[in-house]
Amino acid sequence: MKRIHADIKKSEDIIQKLNTFISKQNGKLIQYLKQDIEDEEKAIRDYKNQISYCRSLGDHKTADLLEHIAKEEEIHFKEISSRLQKI
Ligand SMILES: [Fe+2]
């Protein structure tokens, strides 16, 4: 009986260590995803400014190209945001 209690205690300790590990990993992942979201937001902002600048110069071909890239960044932003919400 004593042995069973010792085994249960060992199992509980292992589970607690695993939970602590998982919690730390999730914390790091959340931190990385939040940084990625900030980076995507900055990229989108920068592309929009560049698009406006190109349009003001009448360079619509470059503006169109930048709009295409900005849309890709918006997709990345949505994907990362969605991933973050699932944690
Ligand atoms: Fe991106």
Short account of what is shown:
With about 90 residues, the protein is mainly alpha-helical.
Could you name the key traits of this structure?
0% strand
Describe this structure in words.
Helices cover 94% and strands 0% of the residues. With 87 residues, the protein is an all-alpha fold. The chain has one domain. The site of fe (ii) ion (FE2) has 4 residues, from helix 1 and helix 2.
Layout of helices and strands, plus pairs?
Layout lengths: L1 H56 L2 H26 L2
The structure holds fe (ii) ion.
The site of fe (ii) ion (FE2) has 4 residues, from α1 and α2.
Query: In what range is the share of β-strand residues?
Result: under 5%
Mean pLDDT rating: 96
Task: Tell me the domain tally.
Answer: 1
* Head-to-tail CA distance between termini: 40 Å
* Share of helix, binned: over 70%
Output the number of helix runs. Answer: 2
Bound molecules: fe (ii) ion
* Main sheet summary: none
Coarse shape: rod-shaped
Low-confidence stretches: none
Care to count the β-strands?
0
Order of helices and strands: HH
- Secondary structure category: mainly alpha
- Radius of gyration computed on alpha carbons: 24 Å
